[in-house]
Records
---
Amino acid sequence: MSAYAALEARFRRLGLLSDAAAMLHWDWATMMPPGGAEARATQLAELSLIRHESLTDPRVCALLDEAETEAEADGDALDDWQRANLKGMRRRWREAAALPSDLVAALSEASSSCEMVWRAARPTNDFAAFAAAFAPLLALVREKAAALAQALDCAPYDALIESYEPGLRSATIDPLFDDLAGFLPEFVGAVREAQGAAGAPAPPLSAPAAAQQALARRLMTALGFDFERGRLDVSLHPFCGGAGGDIRITTRYDEDDALSALMAVLHETGHALYEAGLPEDWRYQPVGQACGMALHESQSLLIEMQACRSRPFTRFLAPLLEEYLGGTGDGMDAEALYRRAIHVEPGFIRVDADEVTYPAHVMLRYRLERALIAGDLVVDGIPGAWADIHDELLGIRPASHADGCLQDIHWSCGELGYFPSYTVGALMAAQFFDAAARDEPALWPAIERGDFAPLLGWLRARVHGLASRHEGPALLERATGRPLGTVVFKTHLQRRYLG
Amino acid sequence: MSAYAALEARFRRLGLLSDAAAMLHWDWATMMPPGGAEARATQLAELSLIRHESLTDPRVCALLDEAETEAEADGDALDDWQRANLKGMRRRWREAAALPSDLVAALSEASSSCEMVWRAARPTNDFAAFAAAFAPLLALVREKAAALAQALDCAPYDALIESYEPGLRSATIDPLFDDLAGFLPEFVGAVREAQGAAGAPAPPLSAPAAAQQALARRLMTALGFDFERGRLDVSLHPFCGGAGGDIRITTRYDEDDALSALMAVLHETGHALYEAGLPEDWRYQPVGQACGMALHESQSLLIEMQACRSRPFTRFLAPLLEEYLGGTGDGMDAEALYRRAIHVEPGFIRVDADEVTYPAHVMLRYRLERALIAGDLVVDGIPGAWADIHDELLGIRPASHADGCLQDIHWSCGELGYFPSYTVGALMAAQFFDAAARDEPALWPAIERGDFAPLLGWLRARVHGLASRHEGPALLERATGRPLGTVVFKTHLQRRYLG
């Protein structure tokens, strides 16, 4: 067996262990009774430790050296996918080798227990309980960031970003975010003025959770989600989980605002379609995994923001709302729905934010994360700093922790460095959709009929099926002909909101 | 670290991997969409392989040798629990070391796919499909039995029994089953005559699945099941799964016969109470696991058959049936319920069988399994042999495979050698309950009030809390003062059915 083949066998095991852990995570968030949390945390920590031990086994480094030497000596030894796979293997090894086993185990245990504390603390607005669990977790995350930074020769916060979106750095993000920060405040004002002049949008639509769920399943099916290979369930924080062949998304139902859950479902379905479209032949290998979290987010935002918060989609949706949710009253025709779907209003909850104010929520977290990792902000200072920046960027201050720093699951899982992906993903989504609509003239008329096949076909060929064959920004440029930037996103906003 | 301590660390990992696999199995049977089966089978096979590799690592055998030598040289080196734990470790190692890794992996994959085929074949009565998947699995099970038999120096079928109930052999089972075979046919005839003279029992009770489920949860709570540490769900075949701190039972609802699902729930709750009562301190160690499958079954039968198919329990149940299931009509008072709960009628479905005819179902499978493992019966011969023995023991022949050899999940999972546990468990259940009622005079009056605390207290102290501290038959004798036999079971039957 060649060194490369031996590595594929090793990474197959790692991929299977990751998938098993992903299922246990899904169960945790959707099915597990509270008493199971401690044992589950221990199981997940052990799986994480086994993966880490297997990846940092000295034989892996030796095999990587050997396979890289072989590939360099013989240009035909590996094809392009295998070369990209080998690169991905080395990257994973480098990250893992930088972290000692006991740190990995401690991080896994601390994030599992912090997540459980967060689940209890959020509804009771109990920041003190959260802080007590988060402070030791943050200390471990900082330790991890420092170790990774040394191995990758970059700043600690950049090392965390790298682990979510390979190749992405603060130096790339800063000019993009600066540009948006310069553009958005004035733009939000102009949109608010225009929308205010047009009168208040229709009030939120009430509907029982069961009816919302039935409609959600109908929409997922239209989008191309295969219920023979996936599920829709309920969790506190919507997410896309599961593993190859069995993609599981979740949402939460607000019986006073049906559109909120439906839009969350459309968003997670975008993630799910990406996962379902990854190449089966490479399922357990690094090159077969999703590219990165910004690219992942681009796929959910492409579905939710680009495709579905549009006039063609609301024309498809309006009769379904009546069919599934019953008597809809005034203002639930397609145009009223559209106005509601693109209504811009600064608020407190990131996942409920419109696409115009969303970047402010991300920039807020980006600034706080950098300060937390740099040691310039302590845990107890989060609520105050949060409120100040929220006020600065959006002109309002949250009145509760639940509306502030307790709203997101990420930090409680030790996931710092993830948030910038959301806005980088929004920029990518605009570029991908723009290119797809240019390449497929039938795309919009099809969406108006509830037919997503033209869009999904384009995505499968240009994005999903390529998995990690290229890094995210390179894949974006190949698919769209443009490097990552803010121009297409801003043009999209101007057309939709002031067009 | 002592050799013994190093072994405990190793077995902790094995225990955690088993628990993770148990959760993935539960998900398979309750939540997983069909498209996930192939990937899930691969995940489970890999977890199984990792456990096997870790257990058969040459260091484990060396550590066992060393720990045993230390324990022998220094009588105070290990306490009684640790000694029993060390014995359990050696037994697991011996079984694992007898099986080559590729056989373990092949068994796991073949049983996962056969189980999926069975799930599809049972409702469509498709024996040919099942046979095609079962034949290669059986070949692997026979290979496993032969390898274990050589390592344990016993017959191949005995080696399989040993893996489910340590210490149990055909030589123990045969005289017990022979005794029952001599007693039961005449007894069934006498009971049928007496019950026939008393007139037909009340007809089955119809109720929507949701109402049955609500009542099932009410009864589980009365029995001592903690929904903060467990769940009730639906699966094709009722089972008790999950892992420490998170015990998950399942049932299936027949809307035309509410008592069927409720009794299945009571049965699985008995299993769940045993699992929940195992000592937390030994959670991941061999000595902390359930004793064996016969003892496990004794706990479910003790709850279902001994405690709940009784007049005191039906007096507790009758008003709840009315409360949860609505208008009950004639014959749903406590006495009519009791008559229905102890109604004896030879039938085809093992899990629906009354306790008097149940042993016949087990003896049937016991005979066929022995023949399959010995090579005296081929897969295609199962339906014919099944019908012949069914006719001989119960006087009726199944008209479909679904009513015959496709009814059980066990063989499709490669579980041969398990079935005798059911009837050995029934004998144990009678002995345990008899001793508990003797030790706790308040036991029956409490059950009539729906208070299971006296019974559960006795079981926790004498059975659950001891886990695998002793082998099953020894534990039975310590708790009840009697060795395993048929006398108490037969006395119970005579009192209940002809008393």
---
Amino acid sequence: MSAGANEAHGNGESGAAEAARRARRASRQLAMLSDQQRNDALLLAAERLEESEGQIVAANAEDLRAAEPLVRAGTMSQAMLARLHISEKSVADMAERVRSVARLPDPLRRKLNQTELDSGLVLTKETCPLGVVAVVFESRPDVVPQVASLALKSGNAILLKGGREAAHTNEALIGVWIETLRESGMSADAAQLLHSRADVAELLELDRDVDLLIPRGGRDFVEIISRQSRIPVLGHGEGICHVYVHSAADFEKAERIVLDAKLDYPAACNAAETLLVDAAIAPRFLPRMVENLRAAGVEVRGCERTRAIVPSGVDAATERDWATEYGDLILSVKVVDGLDHAIAHIHQYGSGHTEAIITGDTGAAERFLNEVDAAGVYHNASTRFADGYRYGLGAEVGISNGKLHARGPMGLEGLTTYKYKLRGSGQTVGDYKSGRKFTHRPL
Amino acid sequence: MSAGANEAHGNGESGAAEAARRARRASRQLAMLSDQQRNDALLLAAERLEESEGQIVAANAEDLRAAEPLVRAGTMSQAMLARLHISEKSVADMAERVRSVARLPDPLRRKLNQTELDSGLVLTKETCPLGVVAVVFESRPDVVPQVASLALKSGNAILLKGGREAAHTNEALIGVWIETLRESGMSADAAQLLHSRADVAELLELDRDVDLLIPRGGRDFVEIISRQSRIPVLGHGEGICHVYVHSAADFEKAERIVLDAKLDYPAACNAAETLLVDAAIAPRFLPRMVENLRAAGVEVRGCERTRAIVPSGVDAATERDWATEYGDLILSVKVVDGLDHAIAHIHQYGSGHTEAIITGDTGAAERFLNEVDAAGVYHNASTRFADGYRYGLGAEVGISNGKLHARGPMGLEGLTTYKYKLRGSGQTVGDYKSGRKFTHRPL
């Protein structure tokens, strides 16, 4: 088995189909491990990551060297280069995150429900791993231990395909991980790295051996993967998040939240793209808000009413702006006529990711939280909180914009499913057609 | 709004896109209704169904008349004709089922989880409706009130497309439903019937206005819908269910369960297609089992070892038999070498629907329930129990063979998702980058 693993890991001759078949086999073993066994392996992995710090940083240096000409040629951004960089501190952080995943409660064999269907016939709905999960991601190599640890904790085998620019770092990280699996007596096939774009194309067809595919990347990337995949896909196409400043908002709070939601990390999917402001307060709120945004380097694009209030320095927003995820230091601003208008705008243009209302009026806030159809609905907090770590999920394998299976940041629970266990004593359905009644008693 | 509803309902001129847009609007209202309001409407619908019995049965008589020549020509089976037939008793049963859905606990606004992220910053994971659900089904008109009641109880708008053979009956049923919605002060767009195949083709593209598509029908039908749809699909392609008679089985129980699993309703997806028998007991168990199966009209196809034990009346099973859902009075039989062999066979050929072990050995049973990767794993009970009503879910919108979102019979829970509500007091993510720590305290 380790020879097979080396093949896929080492020289990439073996394709995605063979890797997935081996992952499926490994997943059967993983599903049977105790929480203790999975946690012990995670703690060992954290230790081995720390011990391999030098080797990981050296591999990363190779990737950074290869990136230099790309940055000079302008085909790689400084931000992407920054995300690629791994320091001694980063390795220590990775190890700590792996330990924090080990500390989370066991997501497996949880009884979700138990019903006595009849005397001596008991139905139990119980969590179990999905099986094999594939994650396709770009640049950030810290995804490797993060996703691998969530997968191991939840008893899933994992197939990873990272960006070419991080190839050496990813190899070093997965190498450490596979060594740990072996040392823990587990199949090395439980975590495998795929190598080529051809592997990804092949992967999309493998719905028999891969249960879930998570693309982490830009909108177009996710869209293409979703369209082509026969495997169920969870990911997010876009994040058009709104901050709505209600007429009863505390201006100081509103300003701080808007600035955080736009500036903390503009490229993130949970950054705000549009600011909605109630007409009643817009003349008092907008001038200073726009001034502060512009001072922070944000380009502001406003509706007609916004531009009437702040005539200079605000470009005209077009219909297209409301539907755009800038991912950059740009913010569109619209004056709305109260809560219903704000909600209607959000439902028309939002992507169902994360939406915030800023108000001192609890009734308005509760209506917003109930009526807005999005994975995250916030009162008086920045949209940037939409993140697995901040939510207390330990980490995330991705963020789902869909409504099925998992919504918002996906941690361990998104990597599990359930099965119905029925324990009987010889019952047939025919018995219940000849008069016998179900008890359907919750246990 | 009611004029619009009539348009789609009455003459079919309005297409699926317009129907879905109206359903989306209706779904926003439905999501805000209280449990009481939804239950009151359900109880009223049950009453109106009973009152409309004559009208429903008359509409059904029209469908039955139209079906007669098809049955004579052999293009419609007697079984299909039987499923189409609605009696006074059937209408009473429908009404009773709608009432039983009203009695179920409210699936909405359930707190799945609550975490204090920090003092004054509380995250709540709470159930909410999916929004708009479309169900495409064949023949059985009782699907209409069953699915419509589950949708209403869970706050979802519904688009239904039934088979042409049941057109009059479906129209009569949805007519009663829509009248009830109006009488209850709800939008008539909350339940709409689509009319043509063109509507279905159009529907598959409407991923913005339809959240979930459930095809109920044959394997090829589900496969085609899944391949073409941009909307997430839950359904089941096939049901290749096994009954495994372990060496420590009680023969009498095993026989009764095998006969029930094969004979109770051979066309159902939860009927058994393959019988696995441990080699240790096969010489004693198989002769009588095969005799009983054959006496009941079942064609038996066996592996070499089976045919060596029961030389006459058993055809040779080929590789293809193990992978076939007969949906008919045919059963394939294989002699296996114990639990591991049985599980390996199930994982190779099973469809992850429902798998049963018959044994008096609890250890073997527990291993089977834990290791077999299927939506239903049964000990000493017939695979035919895999059904929403029998599971105590009240009814089912379908059965899912997938592992994501819903697995096995799907009731109300499969029609809900959740949202994360975050209630803060002005928090920004920036605060937590300058030293502030999350508490992540479960509430």
